[in-house]
């Protein structure tokens, strides 16, 4: 089937098998390999991307379900320069570097995308809020200590809303009773 | 992980969805119960009917004395809803304990109910709050009380070609309610989930998830409590047992969490 | 050995420099093996045994072969000429008999038996991963299921199912170490108090977040193979695969370990899939990729720990440790993995002295085969098991004797020794510790804890439903693995040195090649800090290259907290050679004697003058040798191999504070204090990060993790929905501090920090729960790990 998505701001029209998962579409069709697969059970969060502005696990979503939607991956989080090179990093990207919030880097994109979702809902999270928000993301390297600090750093260094897109697509239509 | 091949169809309307399901399709809402089982190849529907965008399944609204939650509303949206916080606060806090934030952003109340995992959180809350499940099938719409809806392990009163459309819950203004959960630390599903609603007239409804093969209303406990006796949760029930919590321990926890729920009212 | 730390004025060493490798990871530009796509690449999926023990009666591939897009299916018959996966370490029986080393075949052929669930029977290669997966499921195998055993103690019982017919008692080897058992028996008999503990150090799964992935690519024109692999040691994989499995020439094989998403030991070993995709790529003249699912990872990645132990510690009337007697059964799994025999023996038995002056020690070890995947080194590898044993005994002995656990340790600590002016400490179990000063780490830990206040709070808590407990663990470990002659005498089939090349480019920029492999450890930053300081040049002028067997002469890789102590020392050797030759060039240019020069801040200066020449000018001269010392070769590029003189011996003190819910048995970790002495520290931020991660894994073993096998030796919790690893909301912020006792025998004075967190923390958490329970009147000796709420509840209610 053919699907049309906007991925990191770019319109994409792609033929995929019906059973294609969103994560496989991103990694294999679009070669956006920053989104990772760490488990089979929607548990680890390495595949987290934003779908119409909210964090989702792209391993538990068919590409077909995302047809017509807008997807942001880790590759689309930093501002790009006009020549396409990486420009200003997102405060969370800066925070993870500043606070040593990553080691092997494999869970990092999912951690950052999940944290970006948190900071949109809660710009000044407590340590407790951050740890709760990360319950669907597994890191095996850091013990989470520096990930928590990285997210706090980003919260402290964010002036403007983190992503312009505040649209929540799942609850927009009034109920018919 | 790759599922078996299947055909994906997106329902264009509720009527279309019902017709596609009548043809043998399997409903796909948020997909957070269904897709993981398909990836593990434990489930192999030939046709998936995506009902995720049907406006008929969306939204949260008051209808007279009832709060109506569309079956396609996500756990996250329920947790964040002011209407829910006002009229059914247990649903808001309980929804916030399901899965993790990303799961809550996609997983829907209807999908969770239809899947009927014995350790899911919604059933205890729905039964305690005396919710009604509204389903649409080829022969029209019908309603089943939550208390009668969950019939066993992953089984419900739904027919194969039916689709859950709404969850209707009496407004509980003036009532006190709470959902207390002891989680399995890996899956975050409930080992014991205890929902208690204490109505303005003092009457109690108590329900459990995770304890038995199906979620259940504990009328024994309700009677014991109303007559001032010591409550004995899940008495006479067949109790689940697994590596993480044996039958004996789970029954013990049911009592602990009943007491915690009562204390939290 | 010159002490580099004292000699240099360091700008970068000792600083928490932000990691240079981070930018690619935080922007999604990391390049892991599964991210790589080669032209014409095919995809593999394995057909695996669903049973832990079963004979292949027949294989029918007719349907699978007919599926569109299926390119080839290979079975055991196709690869019968290939050798098995070799074991890299030979430990002999006590009586001198060679250890039993069953062949670990590439694929289980018709008529042969699968020895653990997941043992591969066929490799299906197709145009896409989906097709390969579908086709693999269509391969029909008739199985004859046989009885199986997963528990190592059960495997030793008469009548237990046999893993290998030729070894009917399931014993791989037995082994002992320490003082003669008669002497230990006598010490125990004379003891005023003996603390006895029978316990299980359960099997855990490493769970690096990146599942293993391999791409084999054969080029028929050059007759060269390239293997991309998620490995901790590319050269070691090349050696094992070429020389032992495939019998192909090493110089025709390039092994690349690109970005690797964690290892924790599980990616040290050579796995069948690596060899098979490489072999298949030649059969098909097309690249072949395989990426593990998480479910496969649970079945196939080597696991860790899995000891069943009885340990006794004897004390005299004053509380002095008089003897230690240990009997352990260790699980090897079905086949002997790369380092497996060394883990319960030379990485465990040798650490049983701990920090204590115990005069008599004996360990009796039996290593057994079971119908499970191999057990091999997992973060700490043997040292966590040794520390668990000693530190559980120490806290329990204190409770039993009514002694304070901290005081009991202070009393028994080995006195301070620096290994320079005083000799190293000779243990009863073969090793000689390099340097140690054990009192300060525990003193600092107690200070951070606020010990007196804690005990007061604990008394108050005991009146409530939430008990408080504190657990101590003071550990010493052996890392910087390892002196080749020593490990060779102990059975290692490889040397454990490291190599490095420092290539100064003509413009004075420096490329450093290391045989160590960074998969989270931050070598691209720390190694560059060392080089930049030693050469007095900016960090931007130095680049680190690792993970490519074509780039570097040789390397032994990263494990055993060895990278900086061994790999870093090799770099120092090369830098010394660069500076020595550079001085000759500088002296020639400055028209002075070499002895008149001093090197600092990136230039050679004639002592007492302002005459100098910069590093870049000397580099340029080396490559444009117009004005040049007679007889000196052009170029400025040196390789070195460094073979360490000894292991290094970091030590420390970990303290856990827990709260136990008396109603549910649920444990909450309230505080985790770690004071570690890992020798000199290059980058404190990175060392703290290593400690944090180790703590989480050690806490994970204590509280959450552990395999569960059923009576058919099937793993029943092999997904992340069932196997619990710590999540962010399970852990507190860690409280860390450090003491510094330099390693006396390597140029950087470093000891290694990669595993310490996982070595010390586990017993501290279990001890804390036991302490909490005693405070509530429940005098239990042990709780099985992981300490699930039910286990703790039962401990309070039985």
TrEMBL record, chain A:
This is (2Fe-2S)-binding protein. Pfam families: Fer2, Fer2_2. The keyword Iron applies. Keywords: 2Fe-2S, Iron, Iron-sulfur, Metal-binding, Oxidoreductase. It comes from the Bacteria. CDD domains: fer2 (cd00207). One of its GO terms (molecular function) is oxidoreductase activity. SUPFAM superfamilies: 2Fe-2S ferredoxin-like, CO dehydrogenase ISP C-domain like. Residues 1-77 form the 2Fe-2S ferredoxin-type domain. The keyword S-adenosyl-L-methionine does not apply.
Automatic annotation (TrEMBL), chain B:
One of its GO terms (molecular function) is oxidoreductase activity. PROSITE patterns: FAD_PCMH. SMART domains: CO_deh_flav_C. The keyword Amino-acid biosynthesis does not apply. Residues 1-174 form the FAD-binding PCMH-type domain. InterPro entries: CO_DH_flav_C, CO_DH_flav_C_dom_sf, Diverse_Substr_Oxidored, FAD-bd_PCMH, FAD-bd_PCMH-like_sf, FAD-bd_PCMH_sub1, FAD-bd_PCMH_sub2, Mopterin_DH_FAD-bd. It holds the Pfam family CO_deh_flav_C. PANTHER family: XANTHINE DEHYDROGENASE SUBUNIT C-RELATED. This is Xanthine dehydrogenase family protein subunit M. It comes from Fibrella aquatilis. The lineage of its organism: Bacteria, Pseudomonadati, Bacteroidota, Cytophagia, Cytophagales.
């Amino acid at each position: 089937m053919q699907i049309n998505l906007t991925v990191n701001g770019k319109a994409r029209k792609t033929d995929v098998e019906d059973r294609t998962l969103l994560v496989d579409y991103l990694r294999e069709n679009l070669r956006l390999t920053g989104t990772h697969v760490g488990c089979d059970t929607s548990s680890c969060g390495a595949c987290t991307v934003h779908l119409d502005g909210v964090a989702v696990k792209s391993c538990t979503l068919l590409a077909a379900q995302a047809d017509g939607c807008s997807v942001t991956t880790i590759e689309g989080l930093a501002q790009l320069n006009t020549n396409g090179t990486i420009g200003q990093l997102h405060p969370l990207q800066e925070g993870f570097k500043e606070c040593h919030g990553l080691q092997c880097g494999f869970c990092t994109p999912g951690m950052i995308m999940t944290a970006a979702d948190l900071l949109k809902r809660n710009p000044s999270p407590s340590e407790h809020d951050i740890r709760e928000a990360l319950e669907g993301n597994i890191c095996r390297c850091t013990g989470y200590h520096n990930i928590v600090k990285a997210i706090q750093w980003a919260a402290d260094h964010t002036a403007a809303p983190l992503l312009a897109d505040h649209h929540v697509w799942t609850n927009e239509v009034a109920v018919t009773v | 992980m790759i599922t078996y091949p299947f055909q994906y169809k997106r329902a264009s309307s509720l009527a279309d969805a019902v017709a596609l399901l009548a043809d043998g399709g399997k409903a796909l809402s948020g997909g957070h119960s269904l897709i993981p089982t398909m990836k593990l190849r434990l489930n192999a529907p030939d046709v998936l009917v995506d009902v995720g965008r049907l406006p008929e399944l969306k939204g949260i609204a008051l209808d007279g004395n009832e709060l109506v939650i569309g079956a396609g509303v996500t756990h996250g949206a329920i947790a964040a809803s002011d209407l829910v916080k006002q009229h059914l606060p247990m649903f808001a806090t309980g929804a916030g304990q399901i899965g993790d934030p990303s799961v809550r952003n996609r997983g829907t109340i209807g999908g969770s109910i239809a899947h009927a995992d014995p350790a899911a959180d919604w059933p205890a809350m729905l039964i305690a709050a005396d919710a009604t499940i509204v389903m649409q099938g080829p022969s029209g719409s019908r309603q089943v009380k939550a208390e009668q809806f969950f019939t066993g392990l992953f089984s419900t009163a739904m027919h194969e070609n039916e689709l859950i459309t709404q969850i209707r819950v009496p407004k509980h203004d003036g009532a006190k309610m709470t959902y207390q959960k002891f989680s399995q630390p890996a899956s975050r599903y409930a080992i014991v989930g205890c929902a208690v609603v204490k109505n303005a007239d003092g009457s109690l409804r108590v329900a459990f998830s995770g304890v038995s093969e199906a979620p259940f209303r504990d009328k024994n406990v309700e009677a014991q409590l109303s007559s001032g006796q010591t409550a004995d949760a899940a008495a006479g029930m067949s109790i689940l047992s697994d590596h993480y919590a044996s039958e004996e321990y789970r029954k013990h926890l049911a009592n602990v969490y009943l007491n915690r729920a009562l204390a939290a009212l | 050995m010159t002490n580099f730390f004292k000699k240099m004025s360091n700008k970068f060493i000792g600083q928490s420099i932000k990691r240079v490798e981070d930018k690619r990871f935080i922007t999604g530009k990391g390049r892991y093996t599964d991210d790589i796509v080669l032209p014409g690449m095919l995809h593999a999926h394995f057909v695996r045994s669903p049973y832990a023990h079963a004979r292949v009666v027949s294989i029918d591939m007719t349907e699978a072969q007919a599926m569109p897009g299926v390119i080839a299916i290979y079975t055991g018959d196709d690869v019968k000429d290939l050798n098995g996966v070799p074991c890299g370490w030979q430990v002999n029986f006590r009586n001198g008999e060679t250890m039993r080393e069953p062949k670990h075949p590439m694929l289980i052929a018709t008529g042969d038996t699968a020895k653990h669930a997941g043992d591969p029977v066929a490799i299906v290669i197709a145009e896409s991963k989906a097709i390969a997966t579908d086709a693999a499921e269509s391969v029909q195998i008739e199985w004859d299921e046989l009885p199986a055993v997963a528990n190592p103690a059960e495997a030793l019982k008469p009548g237990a199912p046999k893993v290998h017919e030729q070894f009917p008692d399931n014993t791989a080897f037995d082994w002992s170490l320490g003082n003669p058992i008669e002497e230990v028996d006598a010490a125990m008999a004379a003891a005023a108090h003996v603390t006895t503990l029978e316990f299980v150090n359960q099997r855990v799964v490493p769970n690096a977040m990146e599942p293993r992935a391999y791409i084999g690519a054969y080029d028929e024109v050059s007759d060269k193979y390239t293997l991309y692999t998620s490995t901790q040691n590319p050269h070691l994989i090349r050696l094992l695969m070429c020389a032992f499995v495939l019998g192909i020439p090493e110089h025709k094989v390039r092994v690349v370990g690109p970005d690797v998403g964690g290892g924790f030991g599980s990616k040290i070993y050579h796995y069948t899939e690596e060899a098979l995709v490489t072999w298949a790529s030649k059969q098909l003249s097309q690249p072949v990729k395989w990426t593990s699912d998480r479910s496969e990872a649970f079945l196939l990645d080597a696991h860790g720990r899995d000891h069943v132990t009885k340990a006794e510690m004897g004390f005299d009337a004053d509380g002095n440790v008089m003897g230690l007697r240990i009997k352990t059964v260790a699980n090897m799994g079905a086949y002997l993995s790369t380092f497996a025999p060394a883990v319960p023996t030379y990485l465990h038995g040798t650490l049983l002295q701990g920090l204590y002056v115990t005069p008599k020690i004996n360990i009796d070890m039996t290593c057994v085969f079971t119908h499970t995947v191999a057990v091999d080194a997992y973060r700490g590898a043997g040292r966590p098991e040794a520390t668990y044993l000693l530190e559980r005994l120490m806290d329990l002995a204190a409770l039993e004797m009514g002694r304070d656990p901290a005081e009991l340790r202070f009393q028994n600590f080995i006195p301070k020794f620096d290994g320079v002016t005083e000799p190293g400490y000779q243990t009863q179990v073969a090793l000689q510790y390099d340097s140690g000063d054990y009192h300060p780490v525990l003193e600092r830990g107690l200070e951070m804890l606020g010990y007196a206040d804690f005990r007061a709070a604990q008394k108050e808590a005991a009146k409530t439903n939430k008990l408080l407990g504190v657990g101590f663990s003071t550990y010493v470990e052996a890392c910087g693995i390892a002196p080749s002659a020593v490990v060779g005498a102990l059975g290692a089939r490889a040397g454990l040195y490291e190599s490095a090349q420092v290539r100064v480019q003509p413009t004075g920029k420096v490329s450093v090649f290391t045989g160590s492999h960074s998969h989270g450890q931050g070598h691209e930053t720390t190694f560059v800090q060392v080089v930049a300081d030693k050469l007095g040049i900016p960090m931007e002028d130095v680049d680190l290259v690792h993970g490519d067997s074509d780039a570097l002469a040789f390397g032994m890789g990263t494990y055993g907290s060895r990278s900086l102590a061994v790999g870093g020392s090799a770099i120092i050797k090369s830098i010394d050679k660069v500076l020595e030759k550079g001085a000759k060039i500088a002296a020639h240019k400055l028209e002075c004697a070499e002895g008149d020069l001093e090197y600092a801040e990136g230039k050679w200066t004639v002592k007492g003058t302002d005459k100098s020449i910069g590093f870049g000018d000397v580099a340029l001269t080396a490559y444009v040798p117009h004005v040049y010392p007679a007889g000196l070769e052009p170029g400025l590029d040196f390789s070195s191999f460094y073979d360490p003189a000894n292991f290094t011996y970091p030590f420390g003190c970990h303290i856990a504070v827990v709260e136990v819910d008396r109603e549910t048995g649920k444990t909450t970790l309230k505080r985790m204090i770690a004071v570690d002495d890992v020798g000199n520290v290059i980058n404190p931020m990175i060392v703290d990060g290593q400690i944090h991660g180790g703590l989480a894994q050690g806490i994970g073993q204590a509280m959450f993790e552990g395999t569960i096998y059923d009576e058919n030796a099937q793993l029943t919790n092999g997904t992340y929905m069932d196997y619990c690893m710590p999540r962010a909301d399970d852990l507190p912020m860690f409280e860390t501090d450090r003491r510094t006792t330099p390693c006396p025998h390597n140029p950087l004075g470093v000891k290694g920090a990669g595993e310490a967190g996982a070595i010390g923390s586990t017993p501290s958490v279990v001890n804390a729960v036991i302490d909490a329970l005693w405070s509530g009147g429940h005098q239990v000796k042990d709780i099985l790990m992981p300490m699930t709420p039910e286990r703790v509840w039962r401990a309070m209610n039985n």
